[in-house]
Design brief:
This protein is α+β, with helices and mostly antiparallel strands. It contains 7 helices and 9 strands; from the N terminus they run E-E-H-H-E-H-E-E-H-E-E-H-H-E-E-H. The radius of gyration is 24 Å and the shape is globular. The structure holds adenosine-5'-diphosphate.
């Protein structure tokens, strides 16, 4: 434990007393270390696509009179720059949410709206992998929060379910209300997550071996963003997973549906 100890002598004339103050700097040190690690990780992660983009553009110049090579390398260049753009986007999003800063906007949000929007943004990717997305509509369930962040969180979960599924599989999204909470479950039939990785997957830049070796795309920041968005909304994320059977990530936030229904009923009576 790192401590700063301050000793003060009080009233030296009449019987000496010493006041000792302890300031625990452990948390401040930990935060500073986390910040330093984060910056080091970001630099490392950015260097890979930036380096690749530099090399690829040089290669394109070198083979300018071989059109078929130019096309191949230009496609690779495009992929690397898309990867860089999405990494930067994730870094910006994470730095917005990880400090638990006040939400940029807070409004009444219909859960079906955010789920449909999140699915729409993932549909092309799902189709290109031959996956089906199934969502059972659950009308009139409401939460309070930042619509854009909530949509991003659900989209990240669906995006993972798609990327870690086998071709032809199914991704289901279910919304339920339970003891004052709204639960949005994203269920896949993919390879699942080994027990020893279950806590680590929410860490920044953590990527499973399979994700790295098979290059599933992604920055290793997706679940970290989801966790922080849930916490910023007074909620949490739960993970169930069994090797070979698939994973279920459940995004849980406070339910404000009853309050909304009461207001609507009152308005109907007026
Ligand atoms: P990534 O960009 O690598 O997907 P995430 O933070 O979204 O980063 O996820 C961290 C790791 O958790 C992934 O690299 C992967 O190993 C694992 N993971 C996340 N979602 C799933 C899922 N639905 N099925 C299996 N593994 C998953």
């Amino acid at each position: 434990t790192a401590r700063v100890v301050l000793s003060v002598r009080v009233a030296p004339m009449s019987g000496e007393r010493t006041l000792v103050l302890f300031f625990d700097t452990t948390e401040a040190k930990r935060l500073e270390e986390t910040r330093r690690d984060f910056v080091a990780n970001i630099s490392h992660e950015l260097k890979t696509p930036i380096g690749a983009i530099g090399l690829l553009s040089e290669t394109i110049q070198d083979c300018a009179d071989e059109p078929e090579h130019v096309v191949t390398f230009a496609e690779k260049l495009q992929r690397e720059s898309a990867r860089l753009a999405s990494l930067v986007q994730d870094i910006i999003e994470l730095s917005r949410v990880q400090n638990g800063a006040a939400l940029a906007s807070s409004e009444l949000v219909d859960v079906d709206d955010i789920v449909s929007e999140a699915i729409d943004r993932c549909r092309i990717e799902a189709e290109s992998r031959g996956l089906t997305i199934v969502a059972v509509p659950t009308p009139q369930v409401s939460v309070v929060g930042d619509r854009a962040l909530l949509t991003t969180a659900i989209r990240n979960l669906i995006d993972n379910a798609i990327r870690y599924s086998n071709p032809g599989g199914r991704v289901s999204i279910g919304v339920s209300r339970h003891e004052g909470e709204v639960r949005i479950a994203v269920v896949d039939q993919g390879a699942g997550i080994p027990d020893e990785q279950k806590d680590r997957v929410f860490e920044r830049f953590y990527r499973g071996d399979d994700a790295r070796t098979r290059d599933k795309g992604g920055s290793g920041l997706g679940l970290s963003i989801v966790k922080h968005v849930a916490a910023d909304h007074g909620g949490r994320v739960m993970l169930w997973s069994e090797a070979g059977k698939g994973s279920t990530f459940t995004f849980i936030v406070p339910d404000v549906t009853p309050a909304v229904q009461n207001i609507e009923e009152e308005e109907a009576h007026e």
